[in-house]
Cytochrome B561
Amino acid sequence: MIPLHNTEERYGSVAMFFHWVIMLLFLILVVLGLTMTNMEDSAEKWQLYSLHKSFGLTLALLVVLRIFWRFTNPVPLLPETLKAYEKFLAHAVHIGLYGIMLIMPISGVIDSYAGGYKMDFFGLGLLPKAEKRSEWGESVALMVHVYGSYLFYGLFFLHIAGVIKHHFILKDNTLRRMLPVSLKKS
Ligand code: HEM
Ligand code: HEM
């Protein structure tokens, strides 16, 4: 049975839950974001916008809980065999990913609000529409949101490259300790 809390050797079930659910939400949000912005104006397009905002706000809530959990739990140690620059890179990518997890929903909410649009959350209107549009606010937030998504693709690539290197080349427990499986190699 995997404990709820992290230990120095592995992630606990709560951290794993946050990691994999948030990964799935990122995937859904990127697919929705790219699809909806490339569609012709139609009812379906705006339904996808509404779904994108609903999933994005769900993610924002989970990220706040995840960061709280991160700071109240031990962080599994990186293998001692890693060189200093590899440890630095792993930490930098993780910090970057946490940053993106915050920047994307915040810029998305500002973009939508400043544009004078409804902030839907699965059919519940969460925030009232802005009285006045702010073109300046909308364009800055949109720029952050779009460039943020590019930064995410880069960090995601580095993250996955790291996981592949650890699992298939170094053959250590890095991937296994984020999965609900035994840490012993079979
Ligand atoms: C981690 C969370 C999020 C991710 C990964 C994400 C990703 C994306 C992507 C990839 C796009 C397409 C950008 C492009 O044109 O290339 C997009 C567009 C957009 N997102 Fe998000 N998004 C997130 C959260 C949110 C939230 C919480 C909101 C609002 C509540 C939001 C509102 C929007 C809007 C309004 C657009 C369309 C901008 C336009 O009209 O061009 N997003 N998002
Ligand atoms: C197929 C996709 C993914 C795989 C296979 C994967 C795998 C992993 C693994 C194995 C770890 C543990 C690293 C260690 O033990 O030091 C990890 C940590 C982490 N992953 Fe992912 N990941 C994926 C997607 C993502 C995505 C989309 C995000 C962010 C949006 C993300 C953010 C993080 C963060 C921030 C950590 C560090 C957790 C902490 O120590 O607090 N991952 N990931």
User: Anything to note?
Assistant: The longest strand covers residues 124-127. Residues 19, 22-23, 26, 70, 75-76, 78, 94, 97-98, 101, 156, 159-160, 163, 174-175, 177-178 surround protoporphyrin IX containing FE (ligand 2) (CB under 6 Å). Helices lie at 13-37, 43-71, 84-114, 135-170. The CA atoms of residues 10 and 177 lie 5 Å apart.
